């Protein structure tokens, strides 16, 4: 993997210093201070899993080659590792916004294939991980800094990650596009969700891009301004929101029985036969 | 619809003049000339249809309220009209990159609900439409200009649209992410596809974002640099590419028998019973 990354990075050197206001995968050039020679060339890739409707985000700093995957899905680890490699990056962190109930995190499988990769999740999630975050903690990826904001309510360990320099916020299941995560299990609390979203997300600049963990209707991103004005749930009064969430009649999540025990161990559980086969296939491919 | 747009536009006035390098839905601020007072506030929304794996793109100018949908899907017309309305835009054009064989274009249904909307496709496609384009023609949406580039090979009427000011190219089925459209029907020709992509797409600046009509693996965008260096088909020699495409054994497209006759009329055909029901549902909702 490191050799592949090094080789692939050569391919990318020629476009590293271009003046690119917005390009590949929402890639933007970030200037640290006013000196262009200090530019951090950020890579931001948005990936989708059609089985669980999960978005996985790759955030990387092409100037150092460091990258993090946010909310990886175990069944997409082969694809995700290929993208990291293709773009000449090395995976530093597998980050989760919360302990998911609808899919098994890719953190554990990614760690098995990239020994230097560390799993990251909020301490309040109750999950095991190499790095257990508190509100205000900064996840550093090369020259990029992800600020951890506590956005509980869907679960009591939900956090959002803010990449201020690029105007991006990864909201997990706290804010979905024109929706929000359910609050009827995993210590969910509608009032807590309403308060944390209004305090931590809607206080961000209007133009910040909202990148959620899921979408079920084909939307790919939103903005703070849109969700503040157009979200049919979160624009209700606190009392109306609580009543609305109480009245939802939702199905039992189809993967919860497999996902919660696995994600409590942040992907470090004994793999299922399917995922064991995937692991062996990946190992063979790397041999 | 016009009243809704007007009302919704009020919601957006407060963020119209923000300095936003990159935000909602890949939204960027484009400066025409050096005068900030002449800024065109662009809206660019990426939407996905999970049944046909089709990306539909909304491109709009928030300073004039004009918008165009690129490659709309008939089953997603309700969603797409809602997004246009939510963002305070009015649909001027329903644009297609080519005569699709895998889904029915939303052009006809959109025209029935937005009388001022005009359907747009390349004359070489052989399809009927209000506007039939030739290479070099410019599609103007407010202050935005989409350049039409002929990229035949998947079909002989395929075009790509280049939004130079934002560094975006909508490639239809000519360039897919790490792939390309099939060339085994609809006057497909592998050599023609190889030549047109290398001439019209790979000649664009490396940092331009490639936005295809489909993706089947959860990728959402790419760049000219990535496809020039990483596309496993289009990085082959011309002869190798032709052989590779000849050797593909692909299934018969599942919707081709419904899609081709419908798309030849650019959505202006007699609607199927399903789509008739959708049309009536939409009509009722607007009443």
TrEMBL record, chains A, B:
Its cofactor is Fe(2+). One of its GO terms (cellular component) is mitochondrion. Gene3D superfamilies: Ribonuclease Z/Hydroxyacylglutathione hydrolase-like. Residues 53-214 form the Metallo-beta-lactamase domain. It holds the Pfam family Lactamase_B. It catalyses: S-sulfanylglutathione + O2 + H2O = sulfite + glutathione + 2 H(+). It is an enzyme of class 1 (oxidoreductase). One of its GO terms (biological process) is hydrogen sulfide metabolic process. It comes from the Eukaryota. One of its GO terms (molecular function) is metal ion binding. Belongs to the metallo-beta-lactamase superfamily. Glyoxalase II family. PANTHER family: PERSULFIDE DIOXYGENASE ETHE1, PERSULFIDE DIOXYGENASE ETHE1, MITOCHONDRIAL. Homodimer. Monomer. Interacts with TST. May interact with RELA. This is Persulfide dioxygenase ETHE1, mitochondrial. It comes from Amphibalanus amphitrite. The gene is Ethe1.
């Amino acid at each position: 993997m490191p050799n592949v990354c090094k080789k692939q990075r050569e391919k990318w050197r020629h476009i590293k210093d271009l003046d690119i206001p917005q390009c590949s995968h929402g890639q933007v050039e970030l200037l640290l201070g006013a000196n262009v020679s200090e530019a951090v060339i950020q890579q931001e890739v948005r990936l989708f899993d059609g089985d669980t409707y999960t978005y996985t985000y790759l955030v990387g700093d092409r100037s150092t080659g460091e990258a993090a995957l946010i909310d990886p899905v175990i069944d997409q680890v082969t694809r995700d590792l290929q993208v990291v490699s293709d773009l000449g990056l090395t995976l530093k962190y597998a980050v989760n916004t919360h302990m998911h109930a609808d899919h098994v995190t890719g953190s554990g499988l990614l760690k098995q294939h990239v020994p230097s990769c560390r799993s990251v999740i909020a301490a309040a999630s109750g999950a095991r991980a190499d790095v257990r975050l508190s509100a205000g903690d900064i996840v550093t990826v090369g020259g990029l800094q992800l600020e951890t904001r506590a956005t509980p309510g869907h679960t009591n360990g939900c956090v959002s990650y803010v990449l201020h320099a690029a105007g991006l916020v990864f909201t997990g299941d706290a804010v979905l596009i024109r929706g929000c995560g359910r609050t009827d299990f995993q210590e969910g609390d509608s009032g807590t969700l309403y308060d944390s979203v209004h305090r931590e997300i809607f206080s961000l600049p209007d133009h910040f891009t909202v990148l959620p963990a899921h979408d079920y209707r084909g939307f790919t991103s939103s903005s703070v301004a849109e969700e503040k004005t157009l979200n049919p749930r979160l624009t209700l009064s606190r009392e109306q929101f609580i009543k609305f969430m109480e009245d939802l009649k939702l199905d039992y999540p189809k993967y919860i029985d497999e996902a919660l025990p696995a994600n409590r161990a942040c992907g470090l559980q004994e793999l299922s036969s399917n995922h064991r086969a995937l692991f062996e296939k990946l190992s063979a491919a790397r041999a």
